[in-house]
Design goal:
By secondary structure, the chain is mostly helical. It folds into two domains: about 270 residues, no CATH class; about 55 residues, no CATH class. It contains 15 helices and two strands. The protein has a two-stranded antiparallel sheet. The longest helix is centred in the first third of the chain and has 30 residues. It is globular and about 60 Å long.
């Protein structure tokens, strides 16, 4: 018998927002000591280990709060907008106003405000509580089966592509967006389904899907940090995740029964898209930040990114990983000179080997 929790929209909203705030807090724990070290401040030897452990703990608590508990008290379709908006607001407050580590332009502030206002409107016009739902009955409907299958297939296919090769930036970005949006939506869906009296087989299957989808989402963050422009993918990811999550709420969870205003609901997502578009020119200092925000093995991810950055310091500005690898020493001999011209994908092992092998050479050039 699954545990029963009385539905509570305020608690759902609160837990979603707490998850976003903890994500930003976990980033700050790594960012502050690093900034002090770069300023020449000598830090205790144990500081990095403590902050890294605290970062992982806070991210875990935040993930459990927003991706598990929040889904137990309200519709899954409101979790993502509240999570992302709280992350953006907290990000601006902590790194902009409180710590002064980041400079936020007027456009960035307006984009954040638009997303925040749209989230408040979502609470007013969005889906409400549905009692006595049965996951078996919900998934027996053809449209729910079809959508769940599409999400699962797209997640699986995009993960295989993501793990095997590195593509030119636009294609790589598309793969990452599909992987992150589908894995996030499935993760929230099965989280809520745990409470709806699933059979033993379904419960085990959903538990496996939750673990796998969570791992895929986390892995995609690490790959995203080293292969594509953060200023483009972070807002696009937020927009797509919220949209896919809203569609999932309608097709699987029957949110259409409890939406207060369809006109308002559609306008909310238009506002979210507009707000994210305003942020497209900004590198957001959130859990997706390329130096501090990887959810697993932050230290190792930072080493890879640091090595990659050495390949970008030749005076030609920001470039994607595919272009950088083409200039790395030994790449033409190892991979062939025609690959970049033809837009062919690069084997992931070859790409990372080229980046890491160039680190020592680039360090010597810069010094």
């Amino acid at each position: 018998m699954a545990p029963y929790f009385e539905q509570s929209l305020p608690l759902c909203y609160l837990l979603s927002a707490i998850g976003g705030c903890l994500e930003v807090g976990s980033v700050a724990l790594l960012a502050i000591p690093d900034a002090r070290a770069k300023e020449g401040v000598k830090l205790p030897w144990w500081m990095h280990k403590v902050t890294l452990a605290s970062n992982i703990i806070m991210q875990c608590i935040g993930s459990i709060s927003s991706n598990l508990f929040a889904c137990w008290f309200g519709p899954v379709s409101v979790v993502a907008p509240l999570y992302f908006s709280s992350t953006l607001v907290m990000n601006m407050l902590v790194f902009g106003s409180l710590l002064g580590m980041e400079s936020f332009t007027r456009q960035m502030k307006i984009g954040t405000y638009v997303i925040t206002v749209s989230t408040i409107l979502l609470i007013v016009v969005g889906p409400g509580i549905q009692e006595n739902q049965d996951i078996g009955e919900l998934l027996e409907r053809p449209i729910a089966k079809l959508w769940f299958s599409i999400l699962f297939i797209c997640m699986t296919f995009s993960t295989l592509m993501m793990m095997h090769k590195i593509y030119p930036e636009k294609k790589q970005m598309a793969v990452l967006l599909v992987a992150r949006s589908t894995s996030y939506s499935l993760n929230l869906t099965v989280s809520r389904a745990f409470l709806l009296n699933p059979t033993t087989f379904v419960l085990i299957a959903f538990f496996v899907i939750k673990m796998v989808s969570g791992s895929i989402y986390t892995y995609a963050i690490v790959i995203q940090s080293t292969t594509v422009s953060q200023s483009k993918i972070v807002p696009l990811n937020a927009t797509l995740v919220m949209t896919v999550n809203a569609i999932t709420g309608i097709l699987i969870w029957q949110d259409w029964k409890v939406i207060s205003s369809w006109t308002g609901y559609v306008c909310v997502f238009l506002l979210l898209v507009l707000g994210c578009d305003l942020l497209l020119t900004a590198v957001l200092f959130t859990c997706d930040h390329p130096e501090y925000g990887s959810k697993i093995n932050v230290a190792q991810a930072s080493k890879v990114i640091e090595a990659w950055r050495f390949t970008l310091k030749r005076g030609r500005g920001s470039r994607n990983l595919f272009a950088s690898i083409a200039e790395a020493e030994g790449y033409s001999e190892a991979c062939g000179t025609d690959r970049e011209k033809n837009g062919a994908p690069v084997e992931r092992k070859e790409a990372w080997r080229a980046i890491l092998s160039s680190q020592s050479t680039e360090r010597e050039m810069l010094t």
